[in-house]
Amino acid sequence: MNLFYGASCTGTAYETDPESWPARVTTNPQKVKWFYVREERAVMDDRLLVMEATGWGDRFTKKIEVSVPVYNAEFGLHSLIYFNFFFSRGGRIWKQVIPLSSHAQWYTQTHYAAFDSVWFCCILWMLKTELLEVRSKFVHKGWQTLLTDYFNFWNIVDWCTIVGGLVVGTLAMLTYNGTATVAAAAIELTGMSSNEDPDSFNSQIDTYMEALEYLVHYVIILKLVLSFYPLILILRLFKAFAAQPRLAFVTNTIVVTGNDLVHFLLVFTSIFMTFAISGLMLFGRKLPNFTTLMRSANTVFHVMLGEFDWQSIREVSQVEGALWLICTLTVMNLLMLNMVLAIVMDGYTVVKNMTGNAETLPEEIVQIAKNWWAVKWGHSVPLTVIHAALETLAQGVSSRKETLKLKAAGVEDGAEILVGRDTKAVIGMRVEPTDEEVAHYLGPGVIDEVGLNNLVCRVIHDRSDPPGMKSEYEIGYDLNYELKLCEGEVPQELGEAHEYFQTLQLITPE
To answer: Where does the chain cross the membrane (predicted)?
Structure first.
């Protein structure tokens, strides 16, 4: 190339029309020139002629960017308008006009700030709740259980919501501070005269432009994050809907069909990318929508949904284009999309059968109203009280398990071991009543029968009158424990079924 043209190769530039994100950003700009509104038209023309004569734009130039700041007082907007010219090595010039704006005042109404404050307080409340839950797991079960007991899918969604909210809040504060900086620079600029001190005036314009560029790019990032943040909130809605069987249809359907969809996605992606590569090879040099692999994949996605430009494809190659289009529509649209629908509908049928005659949302609302009315008039116990009692009972069962292990090891000699609470009732076990008067009269005895669910049992005492008479005791019914182990008797560990039936005991208001 150097011998033939007498010049070295300048490298790749903008061979295709640039995407919006790289088009907005100019890294390491060179040969910056300023044109001021106060200058005469003839002065600007002379400067342009000098730039042309001195080779300001040469064969190494890849991009020329013209930036024009505008303040719209009617709508309260700071705007920066880019007129970009992108040069390819083949001589084509791509042109883009990119207007970027930011509000001069973000909170024009007081309630706007109130809404943002409430939202940010909710994020902080979620952060506090999750940290307290992590602390509770860590204190009671150790850090090893965090991965098994805490980090489930919904907790990950909660943390994504928290992190996303903090990122949005940080970007919003940076944008707010950037707006204040731009406003201060603009106000200072209005108090200066370009005729009296042109150097200071030009320096202040440079400061204003730099602050405005930072501001509009922060706004772009903020809008990008805000566009994805609602997707996380959708998962939060699914978490809330999971509490109602009818509303949980979508979530449960995704869970049921998850494995099938993942395996299908592998096949789908392979076939999809095959058609994208095929389109790139066939039309990449002629059609802009196929010039890169990503653009070709995007076009295949539109074709799969039935949106395509047959006229453009036909102009490139009618026969090959028709065959490619027919194969793509047949496989991707008629086959693959319908397979997705079949998998989802099959899972939906399973979920619907599992749900059965679950309460509808209006029925649950009526039931909640009835419960509220019953609690108000003292006919029912609040669910919060029941939940607290069950948690206390569960903690007590767990604590009794540890106590039972210590007692079995002889760590707490002489401590009472209550049948049904600290040990399982077993036929042949030596026990005695917890009531001292009954124990003095009947003495110890042997368990002869154990009732259903281990809530009652019958004992034959040593001093029964007549001999062999059985006495019945509660060992968990209504949370009463009327027997204890005799000294030297080995306690038996409670089973999960026994603990379950204990949690079903009637809880009445005190």
So the answer is: 215-238, 261-284, 322-344
- Same domain for 70 and 138, yes or no, is no
In the structure, what pLDDT confidence band is assigned to residue 90 with cuts at 50, 70 and 90?
A: confident
Is the pTM higher than 0.85? The answer reads: no
Does the N-terminal peptide bond of residue 433 adopt cis geometry, omega within 30 degrees of 0? no
Coil vs helix vs strand at 267: helix
> Are residue 35 and residue 134 in the same domain, yes or no?
no
User: Where does a domain end: 339, 355, 371?
Assistant: 355
Structural domain boundaries enclosing 88: 2-103
Q: For residue 390, is it within any domain?
A: no
Q: Are residues 325 and 310 in contact, defined by beta-carbon separation less than 8 angstroms?
A: yes
Name the DSSP letter for residue 409.
T
Residues 256, 233 share a domain: no
State how many domains the chain has.
4
333 and 277: one domain? yes
The three state secondary structure string of 121-180 is HHHHHHHHHHHHHHHHHHHHHCCHHHHHHHCCHHHHHHHHHHHHHHHHHHHHHHHHHHHH
Give strand ranges (E) for 310-435: 430-433
For residue 432, the cross-strand partners are: 484
Whether 7 has a pLDDT exceeding 60, the answer reads no
- CA neighbours closer than 13 Å in the CB half-sphere of residue 416: 13
In sequence order, the 6+-apart residues with CB closer than 8 A to the CB of 486 are: 430, 431, 432, 444
Query: Which residues, 6+ apart, have CB-to-CB distance to 398 below 8 Å?
Result: none
Q: Smallest Cα–Cα separation from 204: which of 343, 366, 36?
A: 36
What residues contact 215, with CB distance under 8 A and at least 6 apart? 78, 102, 175, 178, 179, 181, 182
Residues 20 and 120 in one domain: no
Among 243-247, 322-326, 327-331, whose mean pLDDT is lowest?
243-247
**Hey, CA dihedral for 408, 414, 415, 417, is it positive or negative?**
positive
Q: What three-state secondary structure class fits 351? A: helix
pLDDT digits (tens, 9 = 90+) for 353-399: 887 777 888 888 888 888 888 888 888 888 888 888 887 777 766 66
Is position 398 within any domain? no
User: Is residue 51 domain-resident?
Assistant: yes
Closest CA to 84 of 68, 64, 101, 60: 64
Residues 340, 422, single domain; the answer is no
Q: Which of 208, 243, 278 is the last residue of a domain?
A: 243
Q: Give dist(CA 68, CA 209) in Å, integer.
A: 9
